[in-house]
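Format notes (please read before filing issues)

Several people have asked whether sequences and structure tokens are stored in separate files. They are not. Every record keeps both together, in the order shown below: the sequence lines, then the token lines. Line labels are part of the format and must not be stripped during preprocessing.
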Amino acid sequence: MRITNQLFFNNTQSNYQSSMKGLHNTNQQLSSGLKIQYSFEDTGIYVDAMRLDYEASTLAQVKQTSAKAQSFANNTDKAFNQFSSSLDQFKIKLTQAANDGAMSDTSREAIANELEAIRTHLASVANTSINGTFLFSGSATDVKPIGANGSYKGNGESLNALVGSQVQLAYNIDGQSLFLGSSGDYNKKVSANMPMFNLTKLHPGVMQGNEGEISVPTYLKTTDTIRDMVGDTDADTANDPNAVFYVSGVNSHGTSFNTKIEMTSNASVEDFLERIGHAYGNTSTSKVVDVSLNDHGQVEVTDLRKGSNQLEFHIFGAVDRSAAAGTAGNADATDLDALFANQNVDIVEFMRSDFSANATLPTVASREDFTRPGTFKMGVPLTLGDGSHANAATNLDALFPANVDHVLVGATPLSVAGNTVQDLLSAIETEAALPAGSARIENGQILVEDTTSAFSLTLTTRDVANVNVAGFKTFDAANFERRGFELDGNQLSGNISQIVNETGNYAVSNTKLSEASNTGTVDGTTFALEFVDIQGNVRKAEINLASPQSTFSVDMDNDGVMDDTYVIFNGKGEDTAADDVTYRQLMDIVGMVTSNVFPMTPDDAGYNTAITNSRNRVDVNLDHQGHIQIVDKTSSVSQMRLTMHDANANDFSTPSTLNFMSNNAIVVDEPSLDIFKDLDAMIEAVRNGTYRADGTNGDRNPGIQNSLERLDHIMDHFTRQHTKIGALSNALRDSKDRATLLEVNVKSVKSEIIDADYGETMMKFQQYVLSYQAMLSSISKINQLSLVNYM
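Then the structure lines:
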């Protein structure tokens, strides 16, 4: 083969480039420490390296996120330590205050102030912020969670840290679950608030005929009899009438009931409690509620279904003192207003409130007080619109509705205008031919003294046309649901939670009334409203729920005749059938009547315009526990008043479909919590010296003793939440540690794939250098050859 210069040049150039490339590559590997510099050099290595690099970056981000989240959780944990310490101090002080009779008013006030300071500190801890981020506001971390009145301003959302592909961990405790949460393993427990005494021991002169025997106030016990509970007019136990007890309630599944329990006078209180249990569904083999008597003789009902907030309880008794032995007489009635108007029927009180009530009775009669022979009560205590008791100087027109023109005292009319209660007392004395001073008023109750025990008189309220009209209120203890919403400044609030029966959740705006109805439907229901709007107009209204069309009507001039009727439209401008009406629609109606804004046209456009305009004046909503709340936006001290109830509330034969406000049993404990509201009630109990629930003056505070049970629940709730944030913190720590370990492993694998082996690469470099030098030497020698060398 002939070797030409061209062939020699090509081979030389190829060897040179190959050697230089090898030298360059190995030199680059030595300087960078990487096997490849560009993706085209080895796509397999490049793809693996990029994947591992992404994983390493993700793990680094997870580690950083977990560390920040863990820091947040650790700060939350520290806040819980302060919660725990403060609640321990609160309990110590509350227990100290529970020592009935062991301290002076000054000492009790001092403890109340200390409790107030602890409560303030708890609110401060609840408002803890780190670097401008509030710990307990849910996801609204820029919102201060607890307001000055203890209300929660944040939301119930969790803050989540991304700790892996589609893997998130929460790292906060939202204030809604902490301060307004619920404990699914707690039972609702309610109690009557009137102390019940053994009347035989309290009035031995009347009930035992022992005139000289000393009265001994002794709380009622389960071994006592119904006679001991309701009393009697004499010492003869053989002529006692039966007592009838009217029990209204809602069981743990949201079903309401009205039940009458007739008891003989010699039956035991234990039997009476068992009958109440039967009304809720207890049988000989199973119990759904526990009914007991506490140390103050008050009936307590505990729902045995854990986690339910639906239990309600109300009871009053009636005894016809003129009934034959062993019979109930007029004490057994269906029309409650007729029952209350009967002068021979005494009402047995189990619970009282200071809630306002509307007049429902046109006539009241005198009833002799069996504990004080010769002393007669005229009707029920007279109260003003704010619930305070009338006195002798009270003007009559401040006591009676505006349509009452005069009062018939027996057969003699007494004008309401320009006269006072003292004038009424004088008219009673004149009509009954009693000496001056025989009639008086104590705590709103008109009392008449007649030693002959022959006094008998009725009072009847009439309008200007001399027609009987409702002017007197019913017995507070017996008035279950015809009660006025509570007024606080510019806000009216109902006290009955609206709860969805199927789920047990609190109702929201789009919940249908039928879903929370005590009877499963609202078709055919009429709600009666008596109200004062924000401008001071006194009016009445009716909400008529029917199918296919529901309406509401308003008595604009308060003459008892509905003047204007409006169709209730839904959001689509369609008529609304009864069982499709929502709470939002109900609240819109309440907003319209209380704001004095009504549709100007009968179509849906006029209806929606009225709703929009009313919302500028009045805000109506459901709170976190399903209570209806009405806020007057035009004034800080509102003229608004509202009573809203089933129009057939006086008919005991059927339970009401829905209750919004009632004189129900007080709550001792329940699954749901409102921490700062509960603490405020405890402080109030200490400040007022309320050791146990005592509704004698209408107070519905559960008292210090019951507050201790509620406080234990609160502390247990905080402990559980504390444990939860501890578990979350540990999970975040583990996530951070795992990410750190995985990051090291991924980097190690990546290093094995892409990092150059320095020893191996150096050897290759040396080989390329030697090869390059050998090539240069060979080329040099070949270039020096000529034909002379072959001669």
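For reference, the curators noted about this record: The radius of gyration is 41 Å. Residues 555 and 700 are 33 Å apart (CA to CA).
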